[in-house]
Amino acid sequence: MTAGGSAAAAQGGAAAAPAGPIEVARTALAHAWAMLFLVVLLPVGLLCFPFDPRQRMHDRLSVVWAAGALWLVGVRVEAEGAEHVRPGERYVIAANHQSTLDILALLVVLQARAPFRFLAKRALFRVPVLGWGMRLYGHTPVDRGRARGAVADLGAAQRNLMRRWSTVFFPEGTRSATGRLLPFRPGAFRVAAAAGARV
């Protein structure tokens, strides 16, 4: 899966060229779009919960949200091999992580084929509105700083996977500032093996 468009946005690294006024304006619009959509998604989710236990409305809206944000920053996503993802089957999706664009690209390419939830650092769940939405929609917090807590969080991800959704892991554990792959942590593969899911 590759993203084309603004090199500064796509790389997200320290060596990127300084952003010009157009890039700054696009980024500001994308952030405004993201926050506006989060404010919309939260009440929609609450209203739909009794009638939409599998959260299909959330999944559709999250694709619109991600596609809109990518369009605003001038990024075009090209995916290869997505046709091998079987609709209705649950997966452990292991993705490398360079910037926020990775999250948006995953939503655009895979959410409609294999609805998924993220395993994300616990700090994000403390952010007002964003954190509330992540909990409401079934994403799993992980405490990267405590081994025992991380094991419990992986257990929650496994139950989530076996119950209804595919799960996205960033097995490097953090963003790569240089663009090079960092060593993979084994949690994603343990969960996949325990749940009998494809990776």
From TrEMBL:
CDD domains assigned: LPLAT_AGPAT-like
The Phospholipid/glycerol acyltransferase domain, residue ranges: 91-197
Keywords: Acyltransferase, Membrane, Transferase, Transmembrane, Transmembrane helix
Pathway, per record: Lipid metabolism
Pfam families: Acyltransferase
InterPro entries registered for this protein in UniProt: Plipid/glycerol_acylTrfase
Gene Ontology BP terms: phosphatidic acid biosynthetic process
Membrane-spanning segments: 32-49
GO terms assigned for molecular function: 1-acylglycerol-3-phosphate O-acyltransferase activity
Domain of life: Bacteria
PANTHER family found in the cross-reference section: 1-ACYL-SN-GLYCEROL-3-PHOSPHATE ACYLTRANSFERASE (PTHR10434)
Protein name per the record: Acyl-phosphate glycerol 3-phosphate acyltransferase
